[in-house]
Every structure is written in structure tokens, then in C-alpha cells.
Write a structure and sequence with these properties.
Proton glutamate symport protein; mainly alpha; 80% helix
Length: 416
């Protein structure tokens, strides 16, 4: 626990330093803000790329080993069903909270924002037009395992790994044992690498925060104060519900889980990437006592199907844009929007700025000007900090809950 606390403190210090350095550059050297931001952001880029480097092999090896060791196909089906029920319930609750609170708080009616130039959102507008059932299928079913590895398509890797793991489980122990043992060794070696990479996290955090503060300064918070206040209040309500459900399932062990995942939560918050903490989260959940087979099965699925913070943001931001443009939506339209978001959001795992792409597509569908996305782009980084952190919490709770329901949660923490 000592090393974990040191990492947590190092990240906090890096976060404060990043805000201070970024603020200093913005105020004292505004002409240098853009090149400074571009260069220091590389620290964050290097950290995230180091993590992305090990995600595909880690997901593949741990999932194959987990399923092959289960050997009982009924158990695989049972664990998968429980996980999907959690994911669907959590997604609907998250979407509903966003919808309910944006209607109650009405930030779009109160916030006075200048109508922005849509050019800033041009890439997003282009990337949202092609969404279809065909795109969904392509994101789920891999054409090539190597292509899925090269592009870090977690959902496609999960599909292949499940089929390969089930095939190994049905081959019989005599044939499958050497392969399972090899993958088990590789998985543990990758988890060992996680420990080394995570010590680069403070530099990554410093780079990411300093870059965004140097470019935007602190004035941006004044302009978007109401939007940020209402969004983070809505996130707080979602956290409260998630933690209450977690307490009902895990009891006092919930607090132990939160201590375990505090570093991953902070890294996700600082780097705006829940993907960046995937390997560390695997490690900490296993140390918490979750069965490694359950962790390796549910966590990759959760990264595609259980993004609670992103879900809530989608309804919140879509209705906010409608409010800004004075478009009134009936209750029926809003519920339809909620269901559309529930379905469309499942097919874009691994797409950069996925939440914004879906918001643009949804706005187009419901007659809301899609260029309204330009209104929230300037502040999206700060909203992304909150939703990334919430995604990590949701997946940690889902994995722990299913482990508990399966009777696979150790009472005493393990060392991996």
C-alpha cells in the first residue's frame, strides 16, 4: 500500500504543479502559450501511448486464461449475463439522471454563451455522419485479430478472446494446459510492466493539465460556470447512487475498494482517459480480492458497454444544446433520445472523443443544430475529466459486484 500512496501523492503534486505552470504561462507569456502547450502535452501523450501499448496483449491474455480456466461454459454464460444486466441497468440510470437534472437545472436557459464558429467542430461533424448498423457490426466483429491489436479495438479483441478461450476450455486439459500456462506468464509479465509505466503517470498528468490551462486560462471557468456547476452536480448525484448500490452489495468493503482505486481514479481525472488506467485497474481489483477470471472477463466488456459518466454526459449535453437554441422537446422525444443513445453508444468503443461524436449524431436525428457542439468544445476537456473518472468507478463497482454475486470475492486482499 506504501507504493500506491506514494504514487497518489506524486500525482496530486503533479496536478497542482500543472495548474500553476499552465496558469503562469497563460498570464505572463501568452504569446508562448500555444508552442508551450503543444510541447508539454507530449508528456501526457507518451504516458497514454505507453499504456495503450500493453492494453491489447493484456486484454487478450487475461481473458483467454480466465475463460480457459473457467472450463464450465455455464459459468461463462452466467457471469456474462450478470455483467450485461449491470451494464444495461447502470447505463439507463446514468442516461436518466442526465436527462432529469438537465431539465430541472436548465443550464442552457441560464448560460449566456456566444454562438461559436462551427469550424472548430468540423471534424466531429464529419465523423458523426457515417454512423449506421453496418458501422456498429464492424466495431464489434473483428476482420483480423492483428488489425484489432494494431488499432486497440478492445471490443473486437474481447470477441476473439472469448471464442478462443471457450475453444481452449473445450479442448481438454492435456492440450490446453501449455497454451494457458504460456498466456498466464505473459499476462503476469505485462502486469509487472504496469508497475513501471505507472510511475510515469505524474509526468503525464503534469503535461496534460499544464497544456490545457496554458491555452484556456482560468477565465473559461467564469464563462461556463453554470454549465460546469450543473454537470458536476449531476455527476455527484450519479456517484452517490453508484456508491449506495456498491455499499448494498459490498458493505464496508466498499471503502477498501475506493482506497485501492484512488490512484486510477485520479489518473483518469487528470489525463481524461479511462483507457490509461485499464492495466492498473486490473491489478488493483485483483489485489482487492476479485477473482482474476472474473476481472479479465468483465473489465474489458465494461470498457465497451459500461461508461456511466459518458452516458450521463450524452443526455446532459444534447438537451443543453437544445436549450441554448430554444428548442423545446416533449417528454416522448426525450425518452426516445435516451433509448437511441443507449443503443448508439455501444458501437463506438475506441473512437476518439466518442461521446461528442454520438452527441452530434443524436442532435442531427432530433432536429437540434449539430454545430451546437462547438458551444461545449472549449470546456469539454474539463467535463471529460469528470466523466472519465466516473467510467472507472462504474467499472470497478461492476467487476466487484459480479465477483461477490459469484462467490468469487476474497475476504482478504491479495497481492498480485
Amino acid at each position: 500500500m506504501k507504493g500506491q500512496n506514494k504514487l497518489f501523492i506524486a500525482i496530486i503534486i503533479a496536478l497542482i504543479l500543472g495548474v500553476g505552470i499552465g496558469g503562469l504561462v497563460h498570464v505572463q507569456y501568452p504569446e508562448s502559450a500555444e508552442p508551450f502547450s503543444k510541447n508539454i502535452k507530449l508528456l501526457g501523450t507518451v504516458f497514454i501511448r505507453l499504456v495503450q501499448m500493453i492494453i491489447a496483449p493484456l486484454v487478450f491474455t487475461t481473458l483467454v486464461v480466465g475463460i480457459a480456466k473457467m472450463s464450465d461454459i455455464k459459468m461463462i454464460g452466467r457471469v456474462g449475463t450478470k455483467a450485461m444486466l449491470w451494464f444495461i441497468s447502470a447505463s439507463l440510470v446514468s442516461l436518466f439522471i442526465g436527462l432529469m437534472l438537465v431539465n430541472w437545472l436548465e443550464p442552457g436557459h441560464v448560460t449566456k454563451l456566444p454562438i461559436q464558429d462551427a469550424a472548430a467542430a468540423e471534424d466531429l461533424l464529419k465523423s458523426s455522419k457515417g454512423f449506421s448498423l453496418e458501422d456498429f457490426v464492424k466495431h464489434v466483429v473483428p476482420k483480423s485479430l492483428f488489425e484489432a491489436f494494431a488499432t486497440n479495438e478492445v471490443l473486437q479483441i474481447v470477441v476473439f478472446s472469448i471464442m478462443f478461450g471457450v475453444a481452449l476450455a473445450n479442448l481438454g486439459e492435456e492440450y490446453s494446459r501449455p497454451v494457458v500456462k504460456l498466456f498466464d506468464i505473459i499476462a503476469h509479465a505485462i502486469l509487472k510492466m504496469v508497475g513501471y509505466i505507472m510511475w510515469f503517470a505524474p509526468l503525464g498528468v503534469l503535461g496534460a493539465i499544464a497544456a490545457v490551462v496554458a491555452m484556456n486560462g482560468f477565465e473559461i471557468f467564469k464563462v461556463y460556470a453554470i454549465y460546469l456547476r450543473d454537470f458536476f452536480f449531476a455527476l455527484g448525484v450519479l456517484w452517490l447512487i453508484l456508491l449506495l448500490v456498491g455499499y448494498m452489495i459490498l458493505g464496508n468493503r466498499l471503502f477498501e475498494l475506493l482506497k485501492r482505486i484512488k490512484a486510477p481514479l485520479l489518473i483518469a481525472f487528470s489525463t481524461t482517459s479511462s483507457e490509461a488506467v485499464f492495466p492498473k485497474l486490473v491489478e488493483e481489483l485483483e489485489k482487492f480480492g476479485c477473482n482474476n477470471r472474473v476481472v479479465s472477463f468483465i473489465l474489458p466488456l465494461g470498457y465497451s458497454f459500461n461508461l456511466d459518466g459518458s452516458m450521463m454526459y450524452m443526455t446532459f449535453a444534447s438537451i443543453f444544446i437544445a436549450q441554448i437554441y430554444g428548442i423545446e422537446m416533449s417528454l416522448g422525444q426525450q425518452i426516445t433520445m435516451l433509448l437511441v443513445l443507449m443503443l448508439t453508444s455501444k458501437g463506438i468503443a475506441g473512437v476518439p472523443r466518442a461521446s461528442l461524436v454520438i452527441i452530434v449524431a443524436t442532435c442531427s436525428m432530433f432536429g437540434i443544430p449539430p454545430e451546437g457542439i462547438a458551444l461545449i468544445l472549449p470546456i469539454d476537456h474539463f467535463c471529460d475529466m469528470g466523466r472519465s473518472m466516473t467510467n472507472v468507478l462504474g467499472n470497478a463497482l461492476a467487476t466487484s459486484a459480479v465477483s461477490k454475486w459469484e462467490g468469487q470475492l476474497e475476504n482478504t486482499p491479495q497481492e498480485v
